[in-house]
Fold:
Amino acid sequence: MAMVRLLMNLATIAILFGSTMAANHTVGAPQGRWDQSTDLTTWAASETFLVGDSLIFVYTPNHDVLEVRKSDYDSCQTTNAISTNGGGMTIISLSSTGKRYFICGTGGHCASGMKLEVNTLATVPPPPVKSPVSAPSPKIAPKISPVSAPSPKNAPKISPVSAPSPKSLAPSAPKSSPPATSPETPSLSPSSTEFVPTSSPSSSPSSADKVSVIASSTVVGFGLVIMMLFFM
Structure:
């Protein structure tokens, strides 16, 4: 355990001194390391590896670090390793772009998840550029063309209405119809017919007649008075 702590401290010192030039990636740090309990796939997805960076493997003596090809990585084949490293601490320099594959050579460890795939990039990918939100374009009002008045040539021709002739206006005389024949009235004999005189009611004098009578009697009385004065 003391050896592991020493290697961890050395890895930390290497990271501090190398941070000014290139990044050093301690595998599985800070929550884990190169072992069977660390989710190495998730850790690698959270890192960005560039040319010039370094991988630092810190592990116990029962582990080692084998760099293999893609086919051996998938099948956990340890016999055709590109390189084999041990001793509790291994530093791998990422000197070129591309993918590199690492597994543990201890039997059954690779199959239990102790394997690492690293994709090295040339430069840091630029952050995605957000396209500016374009302002909505103003709505273009539809052009309304003025309605042209119809030309005199295109105007419909109106023919004058002829006045009716006097003959057509004169009412035609109604056709004379034969006189209607009245039903024959039975003749009455003189003996059977009696004439009853009807007495007309006496008409009462009107107010105008009364006034004229009074006026005439007044004139007569006035004349008599004058004659009497004349003879006296």
The longest strand covers residues 115-121. The two ends are 192 Å apart (CA to CA). The chain has five helices and eight strands.
